[in-house]
Amino acid sequence: MNRLTPTAYTLRLPAKIKSGKKPLLSDMEEEIYRRFDDARKKGKRVQECDIQRIALQVSKERGIKDFKATRSWLYRYQERHSIVQRSPTHAGKKFSMTEEDIEKEAQFPDMVEEIVTLNNTPPSRMINFDETSGKLQNSHKKTLSPKGVKDVTVIDPNAPQENFTVGLAISADGYKFSGRGDFQG
């Protein structure tokens, strides 16, 4: 366990507490863990430097001036709270559809049918194009997670593209177009 040396923090404690073992920063560590857990529940990627930043922020809020979130403190903290570094098992971008998008989506099939009928479009000009995407594993983009968690999901709308998309098309007369791949990264 991480024990404190006599510092401004311990000097503020009553004499009875000072006489025995030095107190642990348990309440502060609980707050750090709560903020870490909140970020993970929101799907945010949390790295070691983020825990150090949170620890410094909490210590500043509590008026502890001489606290240093060193690498050794960080490793001991991670061990005490069973926090490990993991590669995300799911990654995604979180977007929401607007009312206008939902309305356009509902009108689309009727609009296509009207255009095909009015223009007397031949079957060779009616093409169905489908996309399917996959994810590339980017091992250097790891996140911290409690030990034993099976799914580590990260939601980041500003994340760099780590996906690939394959497009397949077929016309109404049965002609199959060659597949196309788009690799972003």
Question: Can you describe what's shown?
Answer:
By secondary structure, the chain is of the alpha+beta class. It folds into two domains: 74 residues, Arc Repressor Mutant, subunit A (Orthogonal Bundle), CATH 1.10.10; 75 residues, no CATH class. The strands form three sheets. Strands 3-6-7 form a three-stranded antiparallel beta sheet, with no helix packed on it. It has a two-stranded antiparallel ribbon with strand order 1-4. Helix 3 crosses helix 4. It is elongated, with a radius of gyration of 27 Å. The two termini are 43 Å apart. The mean pLDDT is 78. It is found in: Nucleus. Keywords: DNA-binding.
How many strands?
7
Largest sheet: 3 strands, antiparallel
Mean pLDDT score, rounded?
Answer: 78
- Name the structural class: alpha+beta
Radius of gyration: 27 Å
Which percent range fits the helix content? Answer: 25-40%
- Neighbour order of strands in the largest sheet: 3-6-7
What string gives the helices and strands in order?
Answer: HHHHHEEHEEEEE
Task: Write down the domain tally.
Answer: 2
Question: How would you sum up the global shape?
Answer: elongated
The proportion of strand residues reads: 15-25%
N→C terminal distance: 43 Å
SS element count, helices: 6
Low-confidence stretches: none
Task: List the SSEs and their pairings.
Layout: H1 8-11, H2 15-19, H3 26-41, H4 48-61, H5 71-80, E1 83-86, E2 90-92, H6 99-119, E3 127-135, E4 143-146, E5 153-155, E6 163-171, E7 180-183
Parallel strand pairs: 2-5
Antiparallel strand pairs: 1-4, 3-6, 6-7
Helix pairs in contact: 3-4
